[in-house]
Write a structure and sequence with these properties.
By secondary structure, the chain is an alpha/beta fold. Helices cover 50% and strands 15% of the residues. The chain has helices at residues 21-37, 58-68, 83-94, 114-123, 141-156, 173-179, 189-196, 219-233, 236-265, 272-305, and strands at 8-14, 46-51, 72-77, 100-103, 128-133, 165-172, 200-205, 312-315. The protein is elongated. 32% of the residues are buried. The protein binds uridine-5'-diphosphate (UDP) and magnesium ion. Magnesium ion binds at residues 105, 107, 109, 210, 215.
Length: 321
């Protein structure tokens, strides 16, 4: 068993969440207080909001919360950088102040009661604890289908992800220290954390509906995230192109032999339509292949620039603290 008075930082990314934050912030606070009272975590534990360049009053709400109670703290990004960067900013900010972090969305969808079990698992010796949705009853059929296909596709493409786990997880600072050595700019946290290694465990929880406001992840963004996840963590698509190209070359070679034999045997070669079809098919395939390769070249270009992944413009506390 590890030390019982752990310092926990709950990392909560917030983007335009003025509708939901006043409802969920007290819930997080209650949870933290309960854990402090039960001597599960230390009184130095904090709820850290990461304002991801919100355009509404989210940051003002966070500042007011921080003034009202010292358990609330907040950092603000200089502009909107997306969910993954916001979570990373919070984790990297927290890692020098605590023993464990739990990242969770601020919309009340993830069951906060799973946190007790996560901390328990950590005390058993697991450095990472993934929150996994036990069922998706509250999701529409379409959301469920697309989300499940998303995990299957990622695994097929060689990206190691925990099935039905989003970004609700406990990570120890020991893992975070190692994780800070991962300098990539294209972030896909749920695929990157398993790469760090260390013993991990999973905790099941029920996912509810959003308490207020709208999801920031419509289908288009989810597809973009899946595509980013695959191209950031795996080069399998390029391998598939290579295998496809190789197969087509062999078939073409056989085709050429067949045509030559046909020419020698003087059988008529007919079929203008089929020829056009084949030309179009390969024209399309080549463009698609170029597009996928281009995507990797683009990623490499962005990575070589190594721009900062987040810029913290404001904090509700002093840095020296
Ligand atoms: N979020 C963020 N930056 C963004 C988009 C979303 O920090 O650019 C936060 C958002 O405030 C929420 C979490 O990421 O806490 C998940 O977003 P959302 O609930 O919209 O996604 P869903 O749960 O529908 O997948
Ligand atoms: Mg949500």
């Amino acid at each position: 068993m590890k030390n019982s008075l752990l310092i926990l930082y709950i990392i909560i990314p917030c983007y335009n969440e003025e509708q939901v934050l006043p409802i969920t912030a007290p819930q997080f606070h209650d949870k933290l207080s309960q854990m402090i009272q039960n001597n599960v975590i230390s009184d130095e534990s904090r709820i850290m909001f990461v304002n991801d360049g919100s355009k509404d009053s989210t940051w003002t709400i966070i500042k007011n919360l921080a003034e009202s109670d010292s358990h609330y703290i907040g950092i603000s990004q200089s502009r909107n950088r997306g969910h993954q960067n916001a979570v990373l900013a919070g984790l990297m900010e927290a890692k020098d102040h605590c023993d464990i972090t739990i990242s969770i969305d601020c919309d009340g969808q993830d069951d906060i009661n799973a946190m007790d079990q996560m901390v328990e698992e950590y005390k058993k010796g697991y450095e990472v604890v993934y929150g996994v949705r036990s069922k998706r009853d509250t999701d529409t059929f379409f959301k469920r289908f697309t989300a499940e296909s998303f995990y299957k596709l990622l695994n097929m493409m060689g990206v190691e992800v925990v099935y039905n786990h989003a970004d609700y997880r406990l990570i120890s600072t020991r893992v975070l220290q190692e994780f800070s050595e991962f300098h990539e700019v294209n972030l896909f946290l749920r695929g990157m954390v398993p790469l760090v290694g260390f013993p991990y465990s999973t905790v099941y929880y029920e996912r509810h509906e959003r308490l207020a406001g709208d999801s920031h992840y419509p289908l288009s963004k989810m597809l973009a995230l899946a595509f980013d996840g695959i191209t950031s963590l795996s080069i399998k698509p390029i391998r598939i192109i290579t295998v496809f190209g190789f197969t087509v070359t062999i078939i073409s070679f056989i085709g050429i032999l067949w045509a030559i034999i046909g020419w020698i045997a003087r059988t008529t070669v007919s079929g203008w339509a089929s020829l056009i079809c084949i030309v179009c098919f390969f024209g399309g395939s080549i463009l698609l292949a170029l597009g996928i390769i281009g995507e990797y070249v683009g990623k490499t270009y962005i990575e070589t620039k190594a721009r900062p992944r987040y810029i913290i413009s404001e904090r509700t506390y002093d840095v020296e603290k």
